[in-house]
Write a structure and sequence with these properties.
Largest sheet: none
Number of helices: 6
Helix content: over 70%
Structural class: mainly alpha
CATH class: Mainly Alpha
Distance between the termini: 39 Å
Order of helices and strands: HHHHHH
Number of domains: 1
Strand content: under 5%
């Protein structure tokens, strides 16, 4: 497979992942963090970093709006639930384990 085709396939997969996250708003970021060690905010940071590596100016809020499909504050108000004690405990234990 040539490099251009690979890049096009990777871009298509990325767009599909973003669309999937935008469709499945029931999936909470803390659950993503607890299961996969990344969330929508991480994806926005990676997107922003990729833009900056290529000399494109992008701020974090613009990157999050792209990933969330709306301003983050709006998504948070509409879809983010309060984390449970169990979710927070898992999150903190994984965060501590990653520091070791």
């Amino acid at each position: 497979m040539d490099t251009n085709t690979q890049t096009e396939l990777e871009a298509a997969a990325f767009r599909r992942l973003v669309a999937h996250f935008q469709t499945h708003t029931e999936v909470q970021n803390i659950d993503l963090m607890n299961l996969a060690d990344f969330c929508r905010n991480c994806l926005a940071k990676w997107y922003m970093a990729a833009a900056e590596e290529r000399g494109e100016q992008m701020d974090y809020e613009a990157a999050r709006e792209y990933i969330y499909g709306m301003p983050y504050s709006e998504w948070k108000d509409k879809f983010q639930l309060k984390a449970t004690a169990e979710q927070l405990a898992i999150f903190e234990s994984k965060k501590a384990a990653n520091k070791e």
